[in-house]
Amino acid sequence: MSMRIDYTRPSITELEVEYAMDAARNGWGRKCYDYIYKFEDLFRDHIGVKYAVATSSCTGAYHLGLAALGIGEGDEVILADSNWIATVAPVIHLRAKPIFVDIDPVSWCICPKAVEKAITPKTRAILAVHLYGNPCEMGKLLSIGQKYQIPVIEDAAEAVGSMYRGQRVGGIGEFGVYSFHGTKTMTCGEGGMLVTNNQHIYEKAMVLNNHGRGLNEKKQFWSESIGYKYKISNIQAAIGCAQIERVDELVSRKIEILTNYKELFKDISELRLNEEQSGNVNGAWMVNAEFSKQSGVTRGKAINSLKENGIDGRVFFYPLSSMDMFEDRKENTNAWDISGRSVNLPSYHDMTLNDQQLVADIIKKIFNT
Ligand SMILES: *Cc1c(COP(=O)(O)O)cnc(C)c1O
Asked: What is the pLDDT of residue 3?
């Protein structure tokens, strides 16, 4: 069925079209990396870090980062049970073991207390995913990391525009990754970025992303190790350049959409939207509505009502541990419980206030049926 209101879609202007056409017309031969280098420079400056590597996806950036950290067989990586599958796949590809812990019921992000409890002598990384744009409690995670000498890494795929105490998320941990998939706040169609202040991780990721060819290798076609290839194309990067030039506008529009929904739902105490903790900025990639336990409203009921009215709603991430590849961890009660009574609401840049009103009216009606 074709939807009248999509749940997410990018904001594309003449600028993106112009840069993409220029890349398609002229960006070949000696110029075939120009937009890629420009994109990396602009993004690096935006986040405020030393190094950035553009990639074909966030999943790829994350795989490179974990490999550059030396994550391998038998190592344990702690992450929240409520997550997109991309946050665990590279851990498995590297033969490491994911340790799923519960989320905080307010932020929906990884619970620092649960992280500390899950640490063992095999723990090699703590993964902070800023879910739906909500910033993780980086201060607490970093002190745990420091205490046990374990790097904290950030998946900021959903958090362009989000800030934790004045710092852009993704640029705080050992390394951070971003996604420019078509559903995200900023897009290249497909694309990603790895950022870090750690020169070793940067250089290692560069080598790994070039099939293991050394940075200063003079010998042609010579690899020093088996690597990967998660490169972005110049045409995709051209679109990314336009988007990063517009990033403030893209993020403020997302924040405006969240603010509008908050206003529309302000009298409904049985429903809670993304939390904005004071001192932080929520980039508001995706608006999620969590229905209270007492309300009895389920994700299925909400999704169906939206669908019947031509509106595309999406489920809150299922607990990864509920999938067949893993063992259930039902003790992660928040992760297991919140996904059953949450729904992602349409929140793309170009939706009108009228569209938002329509969505809100349908959601409000669910409480009375
Ligand atoms: C979208 C997303 C990814 C993956 O991004 P791709 O660019 O599709 O690889 C990873 N983590 C989170 C939290 C995401 O939302």
From this structure: 73
